[in-house]
Amino acid sequence: MGLKIGIKQKIMLRSMKKQKKAGFATEEAERFTLPVDAADNFNNSYYLTAHDGETSLYLRLGERGDGTCEVWSSVKHKKEHFANKRNLYLSCESPLKVECKETEKEWLHIYQGELFEVSYNGKETVTCGDGKSAVINLTFNATAPIYDFFTHGNDKLVARTYARQKWNKDFFEGLKKNKQTHYEQYGTVSGTVSIDGNEIKLNNLPAVRDHSYGMRDWGYMNRHFWLAGVSESGRAFNVSMVSYPNAAGIHAGNVFVDGKIINLEDFSIKDDTVCDGLGPDELTATLKTVDGNKLSLKGKRICETVYNLQNGAYTLREGYGEFVLDGETFRGVWEFGYNADIKKWSCYEDLSVI
C-alpha cells in the first residue's frame, strides 16, 4: 500500500468512526416512508427471500420518487418456477404490499396478482402460457438483530476502496449521489402461496429481508453481485460487491452462526463473475471472518429471472443459488447486475488479500 493511499484510508476510517457514534436509528428506519417531495431516482426498497429443500421465493417492492414502483415476485416449488411478467407499476396500483407489524421483529408481505410459468434459456427469461392468479401471504419473524451495512459493517473494506480513488469534486459528489441507508435481517417466513388455486403452506422457512432507501440511479452503477444463503439449521451468510464510477469494487459480507453475526475481513472469488454479462453458473470463493476463520464457499445457479431496469440502462439477473459453505448446504440469492455500457464491467479492482 502506498503512503498516500495509507493516509487517505486512515482519514476515511476516522471519518466513518465519527459518523457511527450516533448509532443506527432503528425505529426511524423501520417506519420510513417515501417522502412526498422525493426526487425521481429516490428509492425505498423492500426485499424478502426464503428457502428450504422444496421451495424458494423472493418478493421485492421498490417505491420510486416518480410515482412508480418496481415489483418482483418469484416462486420456485419443486420443478416449477413462476414469476411476474410486468415489473413496473404506478405506486397506487402495486400488487405487492409490505407492512411493518413490529419494528425489528415482524413484517407482513402480501402479493395479489399474476404469475407466469417461466424458464431460463441461458440468456433471458422465457414465459410459458397464460398468467395464473396468485396470492402470496407471508409473515417474516426475526431470529437475529438488524444488520446495518454502515453502522455494523467492516469499515476497512469500504475505506480501502475509497482511498484508492482520486479525491476530487466528482468523487465527493458521487458519494452524496448514492448515499443510502441499507440494512438486512435474518429470520423465518411462514404463510401461504396460492397459484391458480393450488396452495403451498410454508412453515418457518429460513429467510432474509432487506430494506434500503436513498438515491438509486441504476444507470450509474458499473456492476454488482450479491450472494446470500440460509440453511435449515438457521445459519446464514452474505457476500456482496458493488462498483460505481467513483468507487470501483466495494466488498461487504458477514456470516450468521450460533445466533451471532460475524463480519467478513474479506472474501476472494477467483472465477469470472462477468461471463459476458450473463453471470456465472458456478463459482468458488474463500471467506475470511474478522475472528480469523477461513471458510470455503461453493455455489451454483439453479434458475433466474432477468430484469431490464431504467429503460435498459441496467440488467439485473435475479436467481436462486445452492451453496455449500464448509460442508453445510445453503440456499438463497444468486444476483448479478451489469450496466448497459460493457466498458463499465471492467471498472473493478479486486483488492482482496486472501
Can you describe this structure?
With 354 residues, the protein is mainly beta. 12% of the residues lie in helices and 56% in strands. It is built from four helices and 19 strands. It has helices spanning 3-20, 26-30, 155-163, 169-177; strands at 42-51, 55-64, 68-77, 80-83, 88-90, 96-102, 106-120, 125-142, 147-148, 180-195, 198-215, 223-230, 236-244, 247-257, 260-269, 282-289, 294-309, 314-325, 328-339. The strands form two sheets. An eight-stranded antiparallel β-barrel has the order 1-2-3-4-7-8-10-11. An eight-stranded antiparallel barrel has the order 12-13-14-15-16-17-18-19. A hairpin with a 3-residue loop joins strand 1 (42-51) and strand 2. Helix 1 (3-20) packs across helix 3 (155-163). It is globular and about 65 Å long. The model has no long low-confidence stretch (mean pLDDT 93).
User: By helix and strand content, what is the structural category?
Assistant: mainly beta
Global morphology: globular
* Rg result: 20 Å
Number of strands: 19
> What percent strand?
over 45%
List the total number of helices: 4
- Classify the oligomer: single chain
Which ranges are low-confidence, i.e. pLDDT below 50, for 5 or more consecutive residues? none
Order of helices and strands: HHEEEEEEEEEHHEEEEEEEEEE
Mean pLDDT comes to 93
The neighbouring-strand order within the major sheet is 1-2-3-4-7-8-10-11
Largest β sheet strand count, sense and barrel closure: 8 strands, antiparallel, barrel
Distance between the termini: 15 Å
Helical amount among residues, as a percent range?
A: 10-25%
